[in-house]
Amino acid sequence: MSRSLSEKLTAPELDLLSPMLSQEGDTWTASFQGLTLRTALQPIYSISHKRIVGYEALIRAFDNDNSAVLPLHLFQLPSSNAENLLLDRLCRYLHIRNYSGLEDQLNWLFLNVSPQAVTSGSQADSFFGQLLRQTGLPPHRIVMEIVEQPTDDAEKLKETVAYYKKLGCLTAIDDFGAGHSNFERIWNLSPDIVKLDRTLLTRATEDNKARQILNGIVSLLHQSGCLVLLEGVETRDQAMIAIDAGVDFVQGFFFRRPSIDLEALTRTPANFDELLDEYKTRNQVTLDPTRQLVGFFSGFFKDAIDRLGSGSSMDHACVKLLNHPAVSRCYLVNDRGVQIEDTLVSELGVRSRDPRFKPLESTSSADWFRQQYLRQALAQPESLHITAPYLCVTGAYMCVTLSLGYYQEGELRVLCCDILANPPEPSISQY
């Protein structure tokens, strides 16, 4: 690659790339170092809409014998930054040419672009604005995917992302959750969409704790103002994990593999009705044990509150609760969320104590108002509430909490009872 060509790429002109493209029927191909490049698309589905909302464009390379060349080998061919830039822009040019000719005139086109490419030159990738003007593809139909990896010029990357947004494109962070991922890039670039790396899904498939972390990441990204796409969905179980995690969009072999038959892809349905019906059934089954716990312990709570109303002490009033093999501890909270007296711990709770967390054991005068179970009980007294499993701060163990608000001498109080989510024998599996 000559120095003059490198300079031309720094100040890009479409005329440099146009001779490298040719049309075959309704599709376009490109030539690069003796290889023929074609566009492959993979559908992206919205779970709530139950349909395709976009396509990721992927490059496919073929040699003179029409044998496929791995993308990895294709991107190893450039020997300079200028050639890297040329290949990147050639791929985007090819993808947009092909996508502009599809019948689908609604959905997004996701385009991959590396930080090295978008931070090259001094014109904030003005090539792309020229490309959109020439092809007539509206910028609001483009999602620019920035690969999640370090860049030598973070400020230049930020400027380039701002340029895409100014054009009217959406932006996405790709492969979040792998390698160098962190929320700092989310804060700095404010992407519209975050694509979670498939390693998060793989771990969630194998480990329930990783599944909870995945759900938490999705929640944090939503709170950051980002839509979330989970890629790499390959099995039905992974599709169910994606649905449960609350992601907005999914992509993967389970739904549709990438294909160079572009028009066929626009007519690719996915049976989300069946998946969502299965999710609802599974979710119903998951909730059943919770309902059983509420129903089972209602009598215990009524007995304890009757005794408290008659002037009994906490340890006497809660004796039946504390003797139950599933109960870890009981405590009483006033209407301001502050605990009255110290916690009563059952034999199960004593056995489950971890001495490493001893500084957290005493909870006298602790303030629990931030806890949802406490606020629910205060807002809806006389009803027994139960939480999903969560990490309890008094010992860093997973538990569920039952809470019931009641009135004693005109004052609102809340009786709380913790049950270990993963208790030692004997367990609560009988429910």
TrEMBL record:
<dbReference type="InterPro" id="IPR029151">
    <property type="entry name" value="Sensor-like_sf"/>
</dbReference>
<protein>
    <submittedName>
        <fullName>EAL domain-containing protein</fullName>
    </submittedName>
</protein>
<dbReference type="InterPro" id="IPR050706">
    <property type="entry name" value="Cyclic-di-GMP_PDE-like"/>
</dbReference>
<dbReference type="Pfam" id="PF00563">
    <property type="entry name" value="EAL"/>
</dbReference>
<dbReference type="InterPro" id="IPR035919">
    <property type="entry name" value="EAL_sf"/>
</dbReference>
<dbReference type="InterPro" id="IPR001633">
    <property type="entry name" value="EAL_dom"/>
</dbReference>
<feature type="domain" description="EAL">
    <location>
        <begin position="20"/>
        <end position="272"/>
    </location>
</feature>
